[in-house]
Amino acid sequence: MTSGPGPVVRPYGDTTGDGMVQVSFTLPIPNDARAEGAAVQLAAKMGLFPAMVVHAKAMGPSFTFFVVYGRVSHLVDLSQVEVVEREYPLLTAKEVNLAIRTRLRRKVVVVGATIGTDAHTVGLDAILNVKGFAGEKGLEYYRELRVVNMGAQVTAAELVARAQREKADAVLTSQVVTQRDAHIHHTEEVVAALGVAYGARYRPLVVVGGPRFDPASREQLGVDRVFGKGTTPSEVASYLVHALLTDDRRRSA
Amino acid sequence: MTGKLRLDPAVVRRARTLATRAAAPVEEMARTHTTVSVERAVLRLAGVTGADAEQIPWVNRCVDAVRDQVGLGQGVALPVWDALARHRELDLSTLAQKAAANGIAFRRPDGRDRTRAEAAARKAVGAGVRRIDRNRAERDRRLKRLGDPPRPWIYLIVATGNIFEDIPQAQAAARAGADIVAVIRSTGQSLLDYVPEGATTEGYAGTYATQENFRLMRAALDDVGQELGRYIRLTNYASGLCMPEIATLAGLERLDMMLNDCMYGIIFRDINPQRTFIDQRFSRQVHARAGIVINTGEDNYLTTADAVDAAHTVVVSQLLNERFGLEAGLEPWQLGLGHAFEINPSIPDSFSLELAHAQLVRELFPDAPLKYMPPTKHMTGNVFAGYLLDALFNLVGYMTGQGIILIGMMTEGIHTPFLSDRDLALENIGYIRNAAGSLGTDWHPAKDGLVVRRAHQVLAESVELLERICDETLLTSIARGTFGITKRPADGGKGLDGVVRHEDGYWNPATELLEAGR
After folding, report:
1. Which of A92, A212, A220, B325 gives 20 to 30 Å between its CA and that of B296?
2. pLDDT at position A253
3. A57 catalytic residue (yes or no)
4. CA–CA gap between residue A220 and residue A208 (Å, rounded)
5. Window A:153-172, CB contacts with B under 8 Å
6. Which candidate in A57, A94, A131, A229 is catalytic?
7. CATH superfamily of B147-453
8. How far apart are CA A44 and CA B228, in angstroms?
9. A240 and A118: one domain?
10. ipTM of the modeled complex
């Protein structure tokens, strides 16, 4: 986009340019005249003027809930809006399944493990278990994914042997413990073992996850993707679809 | 009772007969096997508490030591109380600690030694069972004195991860109208093969279930119940790999309701099916004794499978949960069978279908305090539409006489509920109760209308599925993905290595006492 002034917009209530919005919030004070005044003051500081408290309700003796309508003075310059683009689109479970079924025409095999001495399967299970994480179902829920969850304290050799046996498309490793950089060393062991086992052949995708991993450390670790804290199953599934479908060699594998 | 749905009593009987038949082989397995967690629960009943420097409880260390030396084929009680008789200088807890350091030589006692060990174990474990009995009597006294709220009971959740944050939130929830407070567990606790110790202040999306956390929350809810003149029930989760132990701790600390499903851990947590069925039987024996109401987890099936297509799997699971529960000694009033309002609101007649499902469950289980779960799957982030959906959920709850209603939050799936979300949710159900609370008795579906036809259809599909389960066995059905569209083979999943077949001379003082009381 050019740097010139773009179109400017403000909220729309029922007339162009009226700037009307509705907000609701709670203040930790008893419901009385002072509370309503406090709500109006907060609204003004949020840029709502004039603001009207249309609803105030006591929630117990020391909290009050407000609904406020008002006109915002702020403008949005559309030319200044920045959109951070993920390198792949976030898909729903249905879209993931459809993409695999129609474009890959076989199930995608995912082998997951918590590797090394780490006994914490919280992260692995959040991504793999049907139960899932943050309201999203885990990868087991996706019909077109076949998930092998090896659990905790899996060695690099065991993981790679299983990946070969299952003809894995992707290997997922999860680690929580970071003492003496154990998570880095264990990841390097897996990458090395895969290199030995697969040689010149195309190896499975290596996806690494854990709360202490830096998502930017992909190249340094020699893996395909690093997921940090708060990653949800659909992000992982969407990535797998993206990586497997945009690479012709993998599609024919 | 002649129901509104005119269900054929012969079909209902047939469904129960099939459920009993499907459950029988699994019950037989549960009666002839034990698990490491069942054996640890025995030691917990006898009063062993505490953990080592790595936070592994002494009960785990002690059971592992017995297993390493003489196996668990005769249970943990005989070797432990036999050793105690030979080490008169030690009390049970010290013996457990010494065993952890390989300082105790265990054996399988015979003859007089065995008789002596049995007597001592019975006495020690009996003390724990008596404490559970006293807690049950104490609950009854408080309910009589403070009064039991009318049904449906309003169920609210707290989950900060920190027990000391949970306490004021739970008390605020009670003051705002909750009859039941549930403390959600930390993500992943179900997969720990030990119960953490002490008061805990860190958890992922929930607070660890520990004996000390149970005690602290119980005391806090007793205080606020006193203030409000209303008994506030406390709920936690007896699920996962430590189901028997957590059930035991719940009995020891006077919890009132426990999430406890016969298949949830298998389907949603990939816990080994055999381990789960054995553990759930013992845990239900404890719940039966403690007067605890269990909550089953059928609502979860509808979050993975379609709520219309899979409606009959909910009924089948409820019939199985009922059967396993009754076999373990639970009474019908203790069976909080679960179901949910999860039909896609954009399909035609979705409300009528919800009504049909909820009324069907009500009529199939007339004495069970059914637990009705709010919409989650179709809560989109449009909080206004979500608030409307929650109101219709509440309406179905009142129209069909549900026993326990978990209050839906309009911000479901967005964030941990704000104080105001909870307050609005209570305002929502308060309005429905006031406006339509007596509709349950007035309302009658048309004789051949959609509601009646749908209920008959779901019941017929349930009978069909039960017939298939009887033919192929329950464990095979689970392996084939019948429930929650997830396949779980009988020898897969976590925790199978903790399952032990009874050998000749197996003896468990807890089971003996719990079964004798029936």
Report:
1. A92
2. 44
3. no
4. 12
5. none
6. A131
7. D-Lysine 5,6-aminomutase alpha subunit (3.20.20.440)
8. 39
9. yes
10. 0.85
